[in-house]
Amino acid sequence: MDVLMLVYAFLILYPLLLLWRWVDAKRDQECYILDYECFKPTDDRKLDTEFCGEVIKRNRHLGLNEYKFLLKAIVSSGIGEQTYAPRMVFAGREENPTYEDGILEMEEFFKDSIGKLLARTGVSPQEIDVLVVNVSMLAVMPSLSARIINHYQMREDIKVYNLTGMGCSASLISINIAQNIFKTHKNLYALVVTSESLSPNWYSGNDRSMILANCLFRSGGCAILLTNKKALQHRTMFKLKCLVRTHHGARDESYDCCIQKEDDQGRLGFHLGKTLPKAATRALVDNLREITPRILPIRELLRFMIVSFIKKWNQGSSSKGGGGGTSTRAAINFKTGVDHFCIHTGGKAVIDGIGVNLDLSEYDLEPARMTLHRFGNTSASSLWYVLGYMEAKMRLKKGDRILMISFGAGFKCNSCLWEVVRDLGDCNVWRDCVDDYPPKTIANPFMEKYGWINDEDPNTFVIPR
């Protein structure tokens, strides 16, 4: 009888033990953001209108048509006068940058942002278990990650990942790496460092598809401290709910639309092709198709399916009856599962396009527009400046859900959903200017100062000195 009772107890308790272990393991697989720190360069690196004009005039390969193109691009870019450039531009060496220029640009960011982040969180460099660094257009020896480890004297057994060539969507790839490590190891700290080196990649030729990059990309970066420690849940800022990556590199049209290459004169630059909007839209649609069922409530998915079916039925009936009906696409309401939209500041057209596709309001798009105006496109770190704007504006409340969407060369679209763990509103990189945003107008003064270019005659035009 005792043996039988033991068997019954085993049969009942063992499945419960397995269930408890599964639940406990899943809890340790969570990915939290403990804190993050965006980099703000010093004021002597700001690109105002007059200095931008001087930089453009220094390029001896530009003519009147290129001036007109640049003026149109800058005026319509959505970028203001407070963005930052590498120091070598202010030294007048953009045509001949040195190897050290790229390294110093990154080290200035590393030492400022990582140092502030670790000091604020009280985490020692020796406590970091995982380091992921992504800087797409600078590969050095030793690696940038090795330079960080050397500067902060990190542990010998730290897991290190150094990513290059991943483009503007690289920060979510870095987050995904940390997330996957968290699934197999408990009680870890992961430091993600995301930026871009502009110093060796400033284009000094006259190819329009490549000088456009000079108008959009600006200096910046962000350090993000992640953890899966259960004991720190109450201190964390965000919890990762899901992350989806879409890569269209197998399609030649997508692969070629955003690529680093040399122009006809052998000058290295970053080519932004005319097929870029189409490639971005296709990648976004495929990405949303996968992440939508994970982030929206079942009632919204059912509503969308029913409305889509009814519209198709009505269109079919109209065509059979000879009425020809109008084709209207059923729209899914992302706001049923998302409270805030953190969009990559790839440019005004990118922000507008996402706004149309997701049926977003100007309030939803404001963080991305203001970030583009204040900091420009800082590549993979752009998302975190947008997130910082939301936080500085006291928009983020406990339980809110934030959808991040980023694009990058390859061509890639990566997205993820964060849940706000506690009410947020601390000071960050926006502390000295957030009260000035949004301004009455985001129009920059380039047209007012250089609009006379459009009235010039190519036959008589002389480059101003």
TrEMBL record:
Reaction catalysed by this enzyme: a very-long-chain acyl-CoA + malonyl-CoA + H(+) = a very-long-chain 3-oxoacyl-CoA + CO2 + CoA
Residue intervals of the Beta-ketoacyl-[acyl-carrier-protein] synthase III C-terminal domain: 337-419
Signal peptide: 1-25
UniProt pathway: Lipid metabolism; fatty acid biosynthesis
EC identifiers of the protein: 2.3.1.-
Family classification: Belongs to the thiolase-like superfamily. Chalcone/stilbene synthases family.
Protein's UniProt name: 3-ketoacyl-CoA synthase
Organism per entry: Hevea brasiliensis (Para rubber tree)
